[in-house]
Amino acid sequence: MEMSSMISILHGWELKTWIIALIVIVSYLLLTGRYYANFKEGTRVSSKQKMYFIAAIITCGLALGSPISMLAHHMFSAHMLQQSVLYFVVPPLLWKGIPTWLFRAICTEKIRKSVLPLMTNALVSVVVFNVLLSFYHFPIIYDVIMSGEYPMVMYLSHVILFFSAMLMWFAVTCPEPELDRLNHLKKIGYVVLNGLLLYPACALMIFADDLIYSSTKEAHQIFSFLTPLADQQLGGIIMKIFQEGAFAVAIGGIIFSWYRIERSEETEEQ
Questions:
Q1: How confident is the model over 79-91, as pLDDT tens digits?
Q2: What are the domain boundaries of the chain?
Q3: Of 10, 182, 203, 260, whose CB has the highest number of CB atoms within 10 Å?
Q4: Beta-carbon neighbour count of residue 48 at 10 Å?
């Protein structure tokens, strides 16, 4: 790797991203700490739940304000790492960190009853997310977005994908009991379906014998040992690993919650 590339990577930390992250964390801690009593139904938030939210913001900061973000413009694998973190790690942590009373304060009763039921419908959200993610990685679309000629299109596409990922994870880590419509078995099936729908796109990247994105051919090769084709294959592997890992953790959490409820019911019957 060239010395100039190394220097660029070291300077890839974005101060403004971390300032925003700090503001969000401090605001959250104040709302869930000192001012929670000012909210309707406001209750104390556990340290565990706070850690979920803080972990989500820090992880998001690493994806958007660290050298990963800079590398994502040059390396397909880094781009896939960034996306994997933003779509499979940050959303479930955010939902787990938001208490029900804060969610209700953000989303009014009208929105919860008229808009969210459709937007968070399990079938709709899983199809929308996977269709959008596959559409984004369609060679022609991806090359146009990553060309840099239309920066607003790139930012907008990432915002839409993140929003759809939040909706996709809502069915699994729902902070609102009224909208938690899937039982434990259906949630497991939902997570498995998600994994199956994303498999074709990842398989295409991993097993392709040639580059499928022209933009990766023109990208600067930062690491001499990583050819463009190997970089493309690594990108597919990274996304599949993150996806499978996140979904495995989700299924484990669902099973544990299911077991805990069953045990609690058995204890009450005794």
A1: 999 999 999 999 9
A2: 3-263
A3: 182
A4: 9
Give the integer Cα–Cα distance in Å for 54 and 153. Answer: 29
| Full 3-state SS string of 169-196 | HHCCCCCCHHHCCCCHHHHHHHHHHHHH
**Cα gap 212→138, rounded to integer Å:** 9
Which residue's structure tokens are 């406001």?
42
Which token pair is 131? 């269709």
**Nearest partner of 106 among 58, 156, 161, 166, judged by Cα:** 166
Token duo for residue 253: 């959490």
Could you read off the pLDDT of 141-160 as tens digits, one per residue?
988 888 778 889 889 999 99
The residues, any chain, with a CB within 8 Å of residue 64's CB and separated by 6 or more, are 14, 17, 82, 86
Contact 56, 94 (CB under 8 A): yes
